[in-house]
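Fold it.
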Amino acid sequence: MKIPPVFFFFTALTACSATLEWKATGDSQIAGYRAYQGTSPGSYTKVTDVGMKTSVTLAGLQANKKYYFAATAYNSDGLESNFSEEVVYVPPPLISLPFTYDFRVDGVMGDANDISGSPSPYWWLETGGRMYLSNCLGSTILGKVPEGSPLQVHYSSIYKILSDNGSHPQNLFQLFMRTSLSNASEEIYVNVQAHNLTNAMNRAPWNGISLFLRYVDENAHYYAGIRDDGYAVIKKKRDGIYQTLVSKKIFPGTYNATTNFSLIPSQQWIGLKIIVADDSLGRPHLSLFMDKGRTGEWLLVSEVIDDPLRFGPKIAAGICGMRSDFMDLLFDDFKLGDPGPAVILAAKAAAQIIVPNDVATYLSILPQENGEIVLKVKGVSNKTYVIEETTDFRDWKAASTNTTGTTDNESAFTWRTPKEMESSRFYRVREADLQ
């Protein structure tokens, strides 16, 4: 009697644990399943009978200790199958939020096929060959790897076209934190050193730099970031299907796969921040911010509510990380945090502020200690903007004017909101001469 190989994922929300899942055998004689756990290969010291369930969560695991798991099926006569394929898991350390990683310790980390194979207690490099920590910065591989090196040969065999015959393993760079979270804020600064797009087959408008949140696996996660075609996007992937939740053009220029194949600025620091927090109805609210030029001021780029009535079931929790496509990249100042009251307040305000696509306006939403929010509107100098409010975001004909302001020499004016923006109202920014 056999059962299919066990596969598992882990959660570390409240304690170190591993959840094993397997498929039912389909054999009508099966009376139940047993999960086995140990700290040596093929030697199990704990067994859990789960009946006819096809999953079990094993808690109380110690961080940075290697565990081995397997499962069996048994029938009503007590006959038990052989062990399934063994899986290995090393629980990550529980980190306290906010968590900051500044890449100040020099080192090199290789990639690993699965999270349990990562040598780092914090990071897992799934693909990309190497992550370097040097001169107080993190980076992908910079340039080509030597012809005939083990890394070149390996990537040539698994990603021949994507890696330029193995010379650029960094063309598909995917780096993850090992701790699972639900509501979270993730940010990092990136600097594109080179685009590896000499092979026209690898050019595509959707290439770029993205941040992952609630990453369960390659078929279930949220991500947000900037693309080679100049757009910022927030997407969800569920059951292997991508859904674009929101998209907005942010970089000037016209994308062309032959003559202008990336509109993302090079040799310039860009900060990316994504926040996800469930609202009172349990719907994930996702906000993407950018700090172009590393000014320290985060500007809201896009935001969206993952409403299950529009986009299907939400993704509840998972690990976080980043991805870059076909580029040499520097990165710095990674921060991971719980949204907390102030950030959730900012996300709430962002959900109520709408900027029409035909208005070249940037917003900065700054939560204050006293509970108020400062909204900075940036346009061109000496231009008047109107902030309107309404109870129906689909109908602005009956909107009332909340305030007006004219941008100063720094192309900005500031609106300080009430301490609590009414949840039943929506706010819109528009140029005074546009309706």
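The longest helix spans residues 340-352.
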